[in-house]
Specification:
By secondary structure, the chain is mainly α. The chain has one domain (3-328). 79% of the residues lie in helices and 0% in strands. The chain has 14 helices and no strands. The chain has helices at residues 3-22, 28-38, 41-65, 75-91, 99-111, 113-145, 150-176, 179-186, 193-219, 222-250, 256-271, 282-293, 298-322, 335-343. The longest helix has 33 residues, at 113-145. The two termini are 21 Å apart. 36% of the residues are buried.
């Protein structure tokens, strides 16, 4: 990526951090008090994300390389782009509007535009797909651990039906591709209709090539698909340790299974408010509702949300700083190599 573009992404990240600090609904005395309460648990809360991002990076790395010996992008570069990409996404209203373009532009000199775009789209699909599967599987965990009232039964039924619909949608996407179909849907929407129509006409061949690569992941590269899925799903489970660490600051009466349920239901609630930067307010509300549903004081959920917010600010800052570190000189992809990428999948 050109330094000018990278600097624009960096500037965006810095502005987002400043805005978040200015709108953080806690004074510094209260913040210090909460961190003192967390004590030795707080480094573990922040540090566990080193391993979570490692699993995310491995999932994406498998998609990019698919077991091939020639590896134009190192794992540590993927790790760095993973952290920076998520940092931009956390700071962006509606999510997936900053991190994904950044990743594509950083990978293009190494993989070519088509392959870089398809690898990022495939990873985003995998990331969201495992999130939906995590929500769906949590229903059965709840049924195993707790009695179900008719109100909760209705709620679980709605979550299950919605999750199954989303799983069906993603499986169709893996079978037929999503890039061209999504852009064609935009051609029927006001405000973006003219732009989308023009883009589809100019880039139809490229979009078809990306869709072919998406379809190949599930149809022809099942081992890569399921390895990537397993790593990404495992990262969801490991992420529940954050909730476990925080709640253990406040009480000993919480199990790891409870933390899985809290993470699943709170993330489902907060994702309903995807348009909010860092899901501001929705995260705390979702956690409060989730813990109260498991007979844990709702104040614990608010405290968990606040510590999670601080951890996110730390990792957003780290991700933004990494954008200017270790970029190096990209591998030059010749015109002949670009043509080869167009004719083959990864």
């Amino acid at each position: 990526m050109k330094n000018d573009y990278r600097n624009w992404f960096l500037l965006f990240g810095i502005i987002a951090i400043i805005l978040m600090l200015c709108t953080f609904d806690m004074d510094y005395a209260e913040l210090r008090e909460n961190l003192l309460i967390a004590g030795r648990w707080f480094p573990a809360i922040v540090g566990i994300w080193l391993f979570i991002y490692l699993l995310n990076s491995l999932s994406w790395y498998y998609i990019i390389h698919d077991g091939k010996e020639k590896r134009p992008v190192s794992f540590w570069r993927i790790y760095k782009l993973t952290i920076s990409g998520f940092a931009l996404n956390y700071a962006t209203p509606m999510g997936l509007m900053g991190g994904e373009p950044y990743r594509i532009m950083e990978l293009t000199p190494y993989l070519g535009a088509s392959r870089a775009t398809s690898s990022v789209i495939l990873y985003v699909m995998m990331h969201i797909f495992t999130h939906v599967c995590f929500w769906f599987s949590s229903i059965f965990l709840y049924l195993l651990l707790y009695p179900v009232s008719w109100e909760m039964g209705i709620m679980l039924g709605i979550i299950g039906a919605t999750s199954l619909f989303a799983i069906y949608f993603f499986m169709k996407g893996y079978k037929n591709g999503l890039a061209l179909r999504t852009l064609q849907m935009l051609t029927h929407l006001p405000f973006v209709k003219k732009w989308a129509t023009s883009f589809v006409e100019k880039k139809k061949e490229t979009l078809q090539r990306i869709d072919l690569q998406i379809a190949q992941l599930h149809q022809q590269r099942k081992r890569t698909f399921y390895t990537s899925f397993s790593l990404e799903f495992l990262s969801r489970i490991v992420g529940c340790l954050e909730i476990y660490f925080i709640l253990n600051i406040l009480t000993d009466n919480v199990s790891f299974a409870d933390c899985i349920l809290i993470m699943a239901f709170s993330s489902l609630f907060s994702n309903l408010f995807f348009f909010s930067p860092m899901q501001s307010g929705a995260r705390e509300g979702g956690l409060a509702l989730a813990v109260s549903g498991l007979a844990i004081p709702s104040a614990f959920g608010v405290y968990t949300g606040l510590l999670t917010r601080i951890r996110e600010l730390i990792w957003i800052t780290i991700g933004v700083c990494l954008m200017k570190i270790g970029n190096g000189s990209p591998i030059t992809i010749t015109k002949q190599e670009n043509e080869t990428n167009k004719r083959t999948h990864f």
